[in-house]
Amino acid sequence: MQNKVLIANRGEIAVRIIRACKELGIPCVAIYSKADQDSLHVKFADDAICVGEAKNSDSYLNMNNIISAAIASGCNAIHPGYGFLSENMKFVQIVERCNLKFIGPSSEAISQLGNKLMAKEMAKQAKIPVIEGSDGALENVKQGLNICGKIGYPVLIKAVNGGGGKGIFLVNNEFEFAKAFETASMEAQANFGDKSLYVEKYIESPHHIEVQILGDSAGNIVYLGERDCSAQRRNQKLIEESPSPFVNEVLRRTLGNASVRLAKLVKYEGAGTVEFMVDKQGNYYFLEMNPRIQVEHPVTEFVTGIDIVKEQLKIAFGQNLSFKQNDIKIKGHSIECRINAEDPLNNFCPCPGEIKNLVMPGGNGVRIDSHIYSSYVIPPYYDSLLAKLIVFGNTRKEAIKKMRCALEEFVMDGIKNNVEFLYIIMHNSDFVKGTYDTNLIKKILDYNENQKMIKIINENKG
Ligand code: ADP
Ligand code: ADP
Ligand code: MG
Question: What does the CA dihedral 150, 155, 161, 165 come to, rounded to 10 degrees?
């Protein structure tokens, strides 16, 4: 039987997966909602099936329609991309029961890693340090207060099934706890369909370092170095790079080996990422595992020369990894900027609308992954990510210079976007020195706020 893949996603990642299928000669079918019929993934795939109305629950989260689309179009495998159903255990189980191949780990592995508390338990078993906090989901405010009294403030309240930076609340003292708990639980229910929460000690000024792994069905598991994703806004990544300017050879190997231990423990198959918080002193703690392809995978592809999505497909169709840990060499430096339809001056509020004029950069070592084009209308229903701009340089300095040039070339009229803001970060001294942590963007915004205040005060004085 010939392999054929249904791509259960939209946007840039659907386009990315279609390209990998085409290179491998595997026919592929796109799905789309009524709001997405003009998106590039619909045009690029061999076939495309509308699975419902614009709303996520009617289309990209509509399991029945997606499975029916796969079967009706003769697909034998489903690639879930990221977000949507990619970490949904029930969906993976249905896919497996329909004798379709889920391109990712087994439902068994997802049940152990998909929820953050379970994943923390597995990390402990794999002898990886975890952040101090509640062992299980919080039953009520009183229990939460008790635990925080022991671990000490500040703490974070987090959604057990959270993702995309949503559902994370900072609590500075016991007086703030009850209100934060209530808001967090409502938001978790609204965003993730599950209101369970847990608490974790807040680590001051940490670095977000994550390790890309690949595992095949024969149990071979390797790590492809790390990515630094400390440049975040609202606890979501904006800029990612590999290698991390903060990580030395010893830490790289330690985090890599820890990630492989965890993956082996759950017989992990496919591509996955183990995320860590690393504090100023270099102490590392397991944060979560994302059992799927990640947005920022291209920076790893640039520095290792390995096409991670093609590897996902090959692994899913029974091929073993063609390289061992010793074959993986990190060369040069890569940076990714997430180009979003959002307003950096208004708390990064999403700004959908029509893209009037679009010129995307190019050149040696410049890559764009995107689903947009001139006159494309951004629907208001989905994530604000429009394009990923990824550059490669022989050194970090060269990569930063290349990113600045590429951002200068970027023209996108008609909608508010973050291109200028990214350009500012590429000139920020902490970023340029490589000494930044997860507070980088907050500091830049505070600085701008302060400058504005100083200007107003001076004008009033004048
Ligand atoms: P990554 O983890 O790949 O670096 P993000 O955290 O930005 O990227 O997530 C990518 C997309 O997937 C976003 O649209 C985000 O909202 C969505 N997403 C991530 N995790 C979840 C989850 N647990 N539930 C629902 N959506 C998620
Ligand atoms: P998501 O599933 O939304 O990606 P994560 O648990 O991976 O959520 O956390 C996202 C980001 O939130 C981290 O990269 C970090 O910046 C911040 N964060 C999460 N937990 C902590 C913590 N315990 N201390 C400090 N920052 C944290
Ligand atoms: Mg995360």
Answer: -170
Closest-lying ligand to the alpha carbon of 86?
1
* Residue 234 is among the residues annotated as catalytic for this protein: no
Nearest CA to ligand 1 atom 5: 164
Q: Which of 202, 204, 197, 205 is nearest to 153 (CA)?
A: 202
**Which amino acid residue places its CA nearest to atom 20 of ligand 1?**
163
Homologous superfamily in CATH for domain 132-201: ATP-grasp fold, A domain (3.30.1490.20)
Q: With cut-offs at 50, 70 and 90, classify the pLDDT of residue 462.
A: low
Domain 5-103 has CATH 3.40.50.20: yes
How far is the C-alpha of 369 from the C-alpha of 371, rounded, in Å? Answer: 7
Please state, for a pLDDT cut of 70, what percent of the chain lies above it. Answer: 100
Q: Is the CB of 196 under 6 A from ligand 1?
A: no
Q: What is the pLDDT of residues 28-47, one digit of tens each?
A: 999 999 999 999 999 999 99
Residues 341-352 pLDDT 10s: 999 989 999 999
**Helices 308-316 + 297-304 axis angle, to 10:** 100
